[in-house]
Amino acid sequence: MGNVPTKESRSRSSTFSSNSGIQPPSNGDMTGFITRTSVPRRYATSSAMNQSNSNNNLGGLLSNNTSSLLDFKKSKRQEEKDRIQELHYLNLLVKYNENVDGGYLAPFGTYKSNLDFNTDIVRKLIINRELSPFYTPLQDFDESWSENELLIILNQLPLHAIDIAYSDLEENLEDDIDNHKIHKSANYYKRQEQKLKLKNLLIKIKNLQKDEELKFMIEKEKAKSSDNTNVEISSNDLLLALYQNPLECPICFLYYPANLNISRCCLQPICTECFVQIKRLDPHPPHDETSNNQNNADKKFLPHTLISEAASCPYCASPEFGVTYDTPDNIFTGIGSNVKPGDYKIVKDNEFDDEDVDEEEEEDDREEDVLDDEEAVITSSDSASSSPLKSNPEPESITKQSSSIISITKRRRRRSSLAANAPGVITIDMIRPDWEQRLTSARNKLERKAATATAIHASNLLLNGDEDSSRSRSNSNIMMTNSNRNSANSHLVQLQTVEDRMIEEALRLSIIDEEERKKKVEAEEEAKSKK
Amino acid sequence: MATLPKRIIKETERLVSDPVPGITASPSDDNLRYFEVTIDGPSLSPYANGKFQLELYLPDEYPMCAPKVRFLTKIYHPNIDKLGRICLDVLKDNWSPALQIRTILLSIQALLGAPNPDDPLANDVAQEWKQDEQKAISVAKEWTEKYAVSKD
């Protein structure tokens, strides 16, 4: 613990070095900064600080090397992160030719935040028919609409709510807690850089989505004007089969085809777009621990007490929210099927064999179901390129409607609530498997914070009891200490000292950051000139 | 201003077309996410006959996070502090996207009927509530009379 004064004097000296020199500091100082940055600086305990300090003048070259190696590793990691991020956002593009049972593999864009679910996993689940596909929602629905009216609306639906989903692309960049500071930290610049990168990526994604939308429109126009229909565009039969009896999702209030996901516990419907929004709360201390006295609570805060609980069902609050999904009885198109959505024709009830329906609902042996189901649809879809409008509408569709209602209710009644680990249940942790990692990092962060706090606390205690160390401090302080030494008011001095130290520390950090920034600029310029 | 999500539009419409007895909520003209709310104090509670003003704001993430609600009328209640902030689990960690403006306001009304001094927000009030419930209730009645009952 005797290292504190050393640390103190060092931080002072660095204060002076930059005060006296507007030009960059001497080499010795530079390496000092580098060594310090190569230890996890912000959270380093004072002893670590001291170590790096003693290395200061000896190992200039060495530390230079290690820091460049670290930089290299860092940039590699950053590249990897950027790549993953780009893939993630590319996966969020709705593409009309990536469709499953008339829905898509990416969300419509009702929500613009919380899109950090694992897109690869969700896409796989949808393709495997374990989760309802992302259907384009209907904003409104009225039972009195005729089929033609419904079709007109359905055919006008876009792939994605671009305007809503990317609406705050223009803002937010300047939003930063450090914005008001004159000397901004290196982290600030890093954050800004990251934000700019993300913004550019989002602009790119937005444009890609626009292109996709345009393609989709053109193909739909073509289909209207000629027989040359694009098989990837859902046929009117498919649209009607899906949307004639839509259900309102109780969370977003939008209308979806009735084959929504069903909560495992209380059998309530939820659309996939809302389902992927539901996630664990950020790691937090358990509730019993939170006391009213803030200080008390802080002291009790041990890192390992942070917890993270699986989200509960939004409807019945059962823990570990999960859903199951039953594929629609008579629709099987797109990825994983031989039937393209454009070829889909409504199957007459009598062509449909009850056994198929039953098998289809089994959760296991999905592959086999898939084959059975396929045959059922293919047999009726041989005349693929026929008229886009339905030929014999009224009576058939009514029977179909009622039969589908019956089958939905039948299915619901058949299933009772399931355990979170039952086969076929998709939990929210399955689509965000990184929760454990988040918890660990939150705990580590808190631990580091606690360590820093302890270090500061300890050094203050030391300062307090040790007159020598305060003597080596600024003159004014000594005056203060001396004059007040015998007075009962030593508490005030203590406060003063703490404040001084905090200011010094802030100065020191900002100087280090400034140096880092300069170094970075230099490095960039160097890189440019090399090019 | 960004377009309003369908859910908020529909909730607002339904609040107007099918109002909850004893509760009003109307969106402000310049910000449709901001609601002016009144809640009638439940009869048989110290807040009976009071009409309490509240403000309610739907954050960007709504319905994935809870609406922000605050009492504007002064109220003497162990779970509501001087600034009108409310200690209610469903406004915090127990928020569920299946809840609505309507249900949250009903919960607040229920909280008026059932103060919970064991999980306080206003410590002094809770203390008094626990020490002398009768006196606390009479203070609550007084405040209701003073601040929440219209004079005309």
Description of the molecule:
The complex is a heterodimer of chains A (531) and B (152). By secondary structure, chain A is mainly α. In chain A, the strands form three sheets. A four-stranded antiparallel beta sheet of chain A has the order 6-5-7-8. Chain A has 19 helices and eight strands. Chain A folds into two domains: 4-77 and 466-530, no CATH class; 92-278 and 314-433, no CATH class. The longest helix of chain A has 41 residues, at 490-530. Helices cover 54% and strands 3% of the residues of chain A. By secondary structure, chain B is an alpha+beta fold. Chain B has one domain (6-148): Ubiquitin Conjugating Enzyme (Roll). Chain B contains four helices and four strands; from the N terminus they run H-E-E-E-E-H-H-H. Chain B has helices spanning 6-17, 101-113, 123-131, 133-148, and strands at residues 23-27, 34-40, 51-57, 68-71. Chain B has a four-stranded antiparallel beta sheet. In chain B, helix 3 (123-131) crosses helix 4 (133-148). The mean pLDDT of chain B is 92. The interface between A and B is medium-sized, with 27 and 19 residues.
Write the topology of this structure.
The complex is a heterodimer of chains A (531) and B (152).
Chain A: H1 4-20, H2 27-38, H3 46-54, H4 60-91, E1 99-100, E2 103-104, H5 119-127, H6 147-156, H7 162-165, H8 186-225, H9 236-243, E3 247-248, E4 255-256, E5 261-263, E6 269-270, H10 272-275, H11 294-300, E7 322-324, H12 354-361, H13 366-380, H14 394-414, E8 426-427, H15 428-431, H16 435-465, H17 467-471, H18 475-484, H19 490-530
Helix pairs in contact in A: 1-3, 1-19, 2-4, 6-9, 12-13, 18-19
Chain B: H1 6-17, E1 23-27, E2 34-40, E3 51-57, E4 68-71, H2 101-113, H3 123-131, H4 133-148
Antiparallel strand pairs in B: 1-2, 2-3, 3-4
Helix pairs in contact in B: 3-4
